[in-house]
Design brief:
This protein has an eight-stranded mixed sheet with strand order 3-2-4-5-1-8-9-10, sandwiched between helices. A two-stranded antiparallel ribbon has the order 6-7. It has eight helices and ten strands. With about 260 residues, the chain is of the alpha/beta class. Helix 3 runs parallel beside helix 6 and helix 5 packs antiparallel against helix 6 (about 145-160). About 30% of the residues lie in helices and about 20% in strands.
């Protein structure tokens, strides 16, 4: 199997446009599990049907995946996203990977569930909602606190899993304010994503879930990574930052886990 450099469990966010190589990250992990004869697994929360498009047709990597499909129309309630993740926690190993493809859909699902699928169960967010009926009334903007609770409960649970976690998210170009300084993304967003000019779509706090944040993109037929963030101790060396790093011929594991994060086969 491939071994982490330390006891630290990875918390990685990879975001980018369609066709930028996001889903190839978990395929690369499974490929290296296969190469090294590992008995570990990739648990894939698949809301983008990415597995259908990335699965090797010969089935050679199937044994390394535990795939469960997620639907944006069935985000909450019994059998929803959080319920399925809780079932996984009972079986997951510290050296397994839990990948979410796409985390962007969790934000969309939380909104849809709030407005159309308040079925009621033992979710903390739903109990909070039922105790505050006044928050159901009013215009859409007054209810973001509740929507964030649904989304945050799922996201926090995944982030707390005792294994390596990989969030995948879509991207959109940073929006600049107009000539009067109005509209567009706020200064914090423009500053954080300034060097890549693309931000994550969905709930803006997703960037905080990753110890490492990578922007994945395709340019001139080549797949590349640029590091947006690497978290590390103050006053000590952090992982090196990638700038338009070509990973076409090596993939996520050699291009990032081994080459940057210090993993070893």
């Amino acid at each position: 199997m491939i071994h982490a450099a330390t006891t630290r469990r990875e918390r990685i966010v990879v975001y980018g446009d369609r066709g930028g190589g996001k889903s190839s990250t978990y395929v690369s992990i499974a490929d290296w599990l296969d190469r090294t004869g590992s008995d570990r697994a990739v648990w894939l929360a698949d809301s983008d049907r990415g597995w259908d498009g990335n699965r090797p047709e010969d089935g050679s990597l199937d044994r390394y995946f535990r795939v469960f499909s997620l639907d944006r129309e069935e985000f909450g309630g019994r059998g929803g996203w959080l319920s399925q993740a809780k079932a996984v926690r009972r079986e997951i190993h510290p050296d397994d990977w839990f990948a979410v493809d796409l985390q962007t859909h969790a934000w969309e699902g939380a909104q849809r569930y709030y407005w159309g699928e308040k079925s009621g169960n033992d979710s903390l967010a739903e109990l909070w909602l039922r105790s505050r009926p006044q928050d159901v009334s009013g215009d859409h903007g007054t209810n973001w606190g509740v929507i964030n609770k649904f989304y945050g409960e799922w996201t926090a649970f995944v982030s707390s899993l005792p294994c390596h976690v990989l969030f995948l998210a879509s991207a959109s170009e940073i929006r600049e304010p107009n000539s009067q300084g109005k509209g567009g993304d706020d200064l914090d967003v423009r500053s954080y994503y300034g060097k890549v000019r693309y931000r994550m779509e969905g709930q803006k706090d997703l960037r905080g879930e990753g110890h490492s944040v990578l922007y994945a993109f395709e340019a001139n037929g080549r797949y590349r990574y640029t590091s947006v963030k690497e978290r590390g101790p103050i006053g000590r060396a952090k992982r090196r930052l990638l700038v338009n790093e070509d990973v076409t011929d090596v993939g996520f594991v050699p291009g990032y886990l081994i080459g940057v994060a210090g993993w070893r086969p």
